[in-house]
Write a structure and sequence with these properties.
single chain, globular, alpha+beta, 15% strand, DNA polymerase, domain 1, Ubiquitin-like (UB roll)
């Protein structure tokens, strides 16, 4: 199938197998390996990307379904300005350990903070409920997102 999409502000047109998952297209075809393949069932959130401005789990979507869409992966989330405020806060506070979940958490938290500039802890926990981290116990991640919310965009 022929598809056309914009990924991290770059246009792509080409052929894909009808059964190719979006996560595999991003990783294997475009070489954007920051989007991780975790559970392959949509439970862990490691494969989260922004599709037309909304977070989606790319392991649950076919590349062909994204035809005509604008996608932002972890490689494009900071808009070329180094790390964004969520990435900086997570890094500075050492909120993550192994980092496997990091790309999905950063995508979800960035999207969330663009819509909620003054969240409380409960808001952050709800926003990240679709992302699993097996290392941290979540409190450092929640604290980092709350700290990022206080930073100027």
């Amino acid at each position: 199938m022929k598809i056309k999409l914009n990924v991290n502000s770059e246009d792509y047109t080409g052929d894909v197998e009808p059964r190719l998952l979006l996560v595999d297209f991003l990783r294997d075809t475009l070489g954007l390996t920051g989007t991780h393949v975790g559970c392959e069932t949509g439970s862990c959130g490691s494969c989260t990307v922004l599709l037309d401005g909304r977070p989606v789990k790319s392991c649950l979507m076919l590349a062909a379904q994204a035809d005509g869409s604008r996608i932002i992966t972890i490689e494009g989330i900071s808009k070329g300005e180094g790390m964004n405020r969520v990435q900086k806060s997570i890094s500075e506070s050492k909120a993550l350990q192994c980092g496997f979940c990091a790309s999905g958490i950063v995508i979800a938290a960035t999207w969330f903070l663009e819509r909620n500039e003054n969240p409380n802890e409960s808001d952050v926990r709800e926003a990240l409920s679709g992302n699993i981290c097996r290392c941290t116990g979540y409190q450092p991640i929640v604290d980092a997102v709350l700290n990022a919310s206080k930073e100027v965009k």
